[in-house]
Amino acid sequence: MRKTFPTLAQAKAWRQEAQVGLRRGTLNAPVKVTVREAAVQWLDEAERGVVRTRSGDRYKPSALRSYRQVLKRTVIPEFGHLRLSALTRSRLQDLVDRMVGDGLGPSTIRNTFLPLRALYRRALLQGVVVQNPTLGLSLPAHRPKRDRVARPAEAEALLRALPDADRALWATALYAGLRRGELQALRWGDVNLEQGVLRVEHSWDHIAGLIAPKSRAGRRTVPVPEALRGHLVAHRRAHRSTEFVFEGSAGRPMGSAMASRRAHDAWKKLGLRPIGLHECRHTYASLMIAAGVNAKALSTYMGHSSITVTLDRYGHLMPGNEREAGALLDAYLRTEGGANHAGKAIALAA
User: Fold this and answer.
1) pLDDT tens profile 81-114
2) Structural domain count of the chain
3) Residue 90 Cα distances to 13, 86, 95, 97, 111, angstroms
4) Exposed, middle or buried by CB within 10 Å (0-12, 13-18, 19+), for 232?
5) Do the domain assignments include residue 181?
6) Structural domain of residue 75, as residue ranges?
7) What gap in Å lies between CA 250 and CA 237, rounded to an integer?
8) Are residues 117 and 212 in the same domain?
9) What is the pTM of this model?
């Protein structure tokens, strides 16, 4: 590594700092690969499945399309000419500040840096760089709106208002909690109404077609409650010859946008507040929690990668504050088993 300075003192100071950085492993010789070249290589390897997510799964086609768009629109025009080792946190923070000043939303700004973070994680593993400049950035806070959740009576009213052909789709979203792509990819071979379960084996991408679920936990078995079973039985009678449960034209799954439009029109005619397919998934989680299903089971049925995801997203719906905890304990102690247990404790104390 060589660098020119106007004075000998500055040169010696730089050399001393560089030697410290070398010993600590925070400094290495600059690499010739540019951000543009690294981005092209990363996208190619991600599409081939060489580069994977932190959980070891392949990147979803939709995620890679989003990454490609962000890299092409913002990252490469800004930093593509720079060497990978020359991109600093201060340069990235300047871009963040400019985007905030331009009035871009927090989610848009955060999404801009997702492909860069993945790219530098890969470069670190390969020893191409020794620092990840995307870490420690000051990003605007993202405060999503509270999830829309339908109460049980409201959910039934929303279903009754729908055309017969669409009712099973929304019932499956409300009472099985499948994601949009999982609903589209659901096939009759995955539904066992006799055993009261359905299997999530695939998701659907409008370009790539059938793909793996969002994560390894996404492939799962989900119970079919009676509130859903009747809708699926009726739907199967009318669509027994189709491969996909919710099939559209030319043997492909239904288009979610068209189904949502029909549903929203039906609800507005009756003055009902519309709900989205993803909000139905939130409703499913809240209903399961209200019914007393434990967090671990719910995490499995939702297809979350870990119970932590479930608790972080839906923990506010679960019993847990001091008053509720005290009431639960009091209710237990009032039961016969609790009374017997207390009597034994008193006898032992005596």
Assistant:
1) 999 988 999 999 999 999 999 999 999 999 999 9
2) 2
3) 22, 11, 9, 10, 18
4) buried
5) yes
6) 19-125
7) 20
8) no
9) 0.75
